[in-house]
Amino acid sequence: MRFTIHTYGCQMNVRDSEAVAAMLAANGHAAAASEDDADIVIVNSCSVRGKAEDKALGKLGLLCATKRDRPGRIVGLMGCMAQRLGEGIFKRIPLLDFSAGTRRCCAIPRLIARVMAGETNIHDVSRPDDMPDVSDAHCGEGFSAFITILLGCNRRCAYCIVPDVRGPEYSRPAAEVIAEITALARHGVCEVTLLGQSVMRYGIANAVWPDGAASPGGLTEPFPRLLEVVAAIPGITRIRFTSGHPSGCTAELARAMRLFPNICHHLHLPVQSGSDRILKLMRRGYTRADYLAAVRRLREAMPDFALTTDVIVGFPGETVADFEDTRTLMDEAGFDNAFIFKYSPRPGTPAAAMKDDVPAAEKMRRNQLLLADQDTRGEALNQRLVGSTQEVLVEGPSLRNGKRWAGRSPGNKIVVFDPPDGLRPGTLAHVRITRAAPQTLYGEMMGN
Ligand code: SAH
Ligand code: SF4
Ligand code: F3S
Question: How many whole angstroms from 281 Cα to the centroid of ligand 1?
Answer without folding.
Answer: 15
